[in-house]
Design brief:
The protein is α/β, with parallel strands linked by helices. It has helices at residues 11-22, 56-63, 79-84, 86-107, 140-156, 187-196, 222-237, 257-268, 292-298, 306-321; strands spanning 2-6, 26-30, 46-47, 69-72, 111-115, 126-129, 162-168, 170-172, 202-204, 216-217, 219-221, 243-249, 255-256, 275-277, 286-289. 39% of the residues lie in helices and 18% in strands.
Length: 326
């Protein structure tokens, strides 16, 4: 099967590209390479274009030749940036989706897997958040993801079109050291950055109603997330999904911030004494996915442990620190 992957040179996209190639699929990537790195996907053809620009439509249309399905990652994903530049975020993420859908419609490609986000749930919290939970994003980034899902449903209402929207939670780890996450946006790379600087990691609040007082989140290994994209791709192209179907992608098991810090300490061999500060406003105590729909309908489940996540992330971090590439 020939698959087009937008944003395929990025952190998650490159893991998906590698798994597609390993199972024998043919891949073409569309990426502006602003945050992606072509060294992550050697030998894969890359069509370099800015998807949110209407001029990209004919470029993508040509790239879709003989393509059976699209996996869509390309977009902006910094929550704080989306708050500061909301109109630009809508242009980038919603405009990019619209241009991609127009190109797909022009050549008759009717299957997509969309990289959505648990940010669509907004303030939903608890130890088992289902897909039926209210979707009320609290920032423009989450809103663009929810609008993207609705666009897919609207397209499916008027023409033959099947899609899966994967709402994933906290992604970390590396399927190979050279594919690690270079963006310091999430807890694991943020702790690594502090260790590099010889500074204590910061823990925001240790007085939550949790066993150790710190926030609990659902962390998923990026290789498990990539496998979920392939499972969703197969379900879409096999006709097992009608319209647009949302799936939570997580482990269903929560880990606290303190547990994560301890796992990093074990993987790195560095003694860590975190600095406890006041809670951040709006941080819920527990946010954990209910991934049962993905298990029952896609035949997918997460296989990696918290220790797998942290040890693989640390190996990647060491490689990058010694002159490797991501």
């Amino acid at each position: 099967m020939r698959v087009l992957v937008t944003g395929g040179a990025g952190y998650i996209g490159s893991h998906v590209v590698r798994q597609l190639v390993e199972r024998g699929d043919e891949v073409v990537v569309v990426d502006d390479l602003e945050t992606g790195d072509e060294r992550r996907i050697p030998g894969i053809p890359i069509v370099r274009t800015e998807l949110s620009d209407p001029a990209a439509i004919p470029v993508v249309r040509e790239a879709l030749s003989d393509v059976a399905a699209v996996i869509h990652f390309a977009g902006r994903k910094r929550v704080n940036e989306s708050v500061l530049r909301p109109a630009w975020y809508y242009q980038q993420n919603v405009g990019g989706m619209a241009n991609l859908l127009l190109a797909m419609e022009a050549v008759g490609v009717g299957s997509m897997v969309f990289s959505s986000s648990a940010a669509v749930y907004g303030t939903s919290e608890g130890d088992s958040i289902p897909e039926s939970a209210p979707t009320n994003p609290i920032n423009p980034y989450g809103s663009t993801k929810l609008i993207g899902e609705r666009m897919l449903s609207d397209v499916a209402a008027v023409r033959p079109f099947r899609s899966a929207s994967l709402r994933y939670f906290n992604v970390a780890g590396a399927g190979a050291p050279e594919l690690g996450d270079t963006a310091v946006l999430n807890l694991v790379p943020m702790v690594f950055e502090r260790l590099d600087a010889g500074e204590a990691p910061v823990v925001f609040g240790a007085d939550y109603p949790t066993p150790d007082g710190t926030c609990i989140r659902d962390y998923i290994h990026v290789s498990d997330l990539a496998a979920a994209h392939l499972a969703a791709l197969d379900a879409v192209t096999d006709g097992r999904i009608d319209g647009n179907r949302a799936f939570n992608i997580g482990t269903g098991v929560g880990s606290s911030v303190r547990e994560m810090v301890e796992a990093i300490e074990q993987a790195s061999g560095i003694r860590i004494e975190p600095r406890i500060v006041e809670r951040r406003e709006g941080d819920p105590a527990v946010v954990v996915a209910d991934p049962s729909r993905a298990r029952s309908e896609l035949g997918w489940k997460a296989r990696h442990t918290l220790q797998d996540i942290v040890s693989s992330a640390w190996r990647s971090h060491v490689l990058l620190a010694t002159g490797g590439h991501a």
